[in-house]
Amino acid sequence: MSERPGKFKLSPNLQHLGKIYYRMNSLKDIRKPKTLVENKISFAADESEVSIYDTYEKASRVHLKADELLLCGMVSGKKIMHSEGVKSRIDEQVFLPHESFIMAPGESVEIDFPDATMSHPTICLTVEIAKEKVLKIHERMYENFPALSGDSIWQPGTSFPVLHTHHSHETQELLNQLTHLFTENHPDRKLLIDLHISELIVRMLRHTTRAFLLRYCNRDPEANSLVAALYWINKNLIKPLDIDALSKHACMSRSSLYELFRKQLGCSPVEWQQQTRLTLAAERIKNGELITVVSYDLGFNTPSHFCHRFKNLYGCTASEYKSKF
User: In this structure, what DSSP letter does residue 16 have?
Assistant: First the structure.
């Protein structure tokens, strides 16, 4: 692919998607639709494949099956995901930009496209990753993440056959960079793609760990120092985080506590608390609660501070998020 597409003008409702939307629109010459539902263009690499799907009209119950570990990243529009496989155990879930949907090999879902039009297509990027590659990275990471009381965190596709999660800034940028790499003839393209895919797997496994630990800490709140710390944060979620009290509860020094969070969760205790608050806030807003009430209930000093934090994580304002449900 030697030609580089020209510039384009972003439509106002997609300006917040920034560079990733630009790079995906730069594929417009090779993305001319052959079909109006799930029009697909793919780019293959060693042990992985990236695909871009455009849907231009409303549709329902479109089948998707994962042959390998599959990461779906929403770019624009909205999907509604329905469980089809026996293992997945998901109910109807709304899938929005700045979110990922991770599916284990062999899992199936059915998808509705309620808002897709020719002028505002629903766009999704998928990354299919060979099981062998996931296992190699899984084994390397396992050394840093001991099992919890006999339960293994690292069972991708077993504990969490379908995982719906929000993009971190880093994951969003990785998807952005991957799209760019697959559309240029850089001499080191294959190597760079492999490195980016490896980093993406690491970040996905970290998300799995977070989900695992959130469930586990309610079942056995004193299992180990990390679980004890997470349980304490959740029990004191609306209060300013007292690191000294948290360290004492986890029986660790401040420096050891920060290092533990960094290694196993990729964030600080304060960042974890903030993300947990915002996740809970999103659920309450989705259920129709007033944004101002939610922000004060969860310990934010002002609604404006809450809205700023919310937009950083979700890619839209709390009001815009509420309107999508």
Answer: G
Task: Give Cα separations from 309 to 35, 302, 324 (angstroms).
Answer: 39, 11, 19
Count of residues for the chain? 325
DSSP state of 204: H
| Segment among 48-57, 179-188, 203-212 with least mean pLDDT | 203-212
pTM for the predicted model, two decimal places = 0.68
Token pair, residue 286, equals 């989705």
| Sheet strands (E) in the chain | 39-45, 48-55, 59-65, 69-76, 79-83, 93-95, 99-103, 108-113, 122-129, 162-166
pLDDT digits (tens, 9 = 90+) for 81-95: 887 654 445 567 888
Q: Rounding to the nearest 10 degrees, give the CA dihedral for residues 304, 21, 51, 6.
A: -170
Summarised one tens digit per residue, pLDDT across range 193-202 is 888 888 887 7
Per the CB < 8 A criterion, the answer to whether 59 and 37 are in contact is yes
Residue 61 CB neighbour total at 10 angstroms: 10
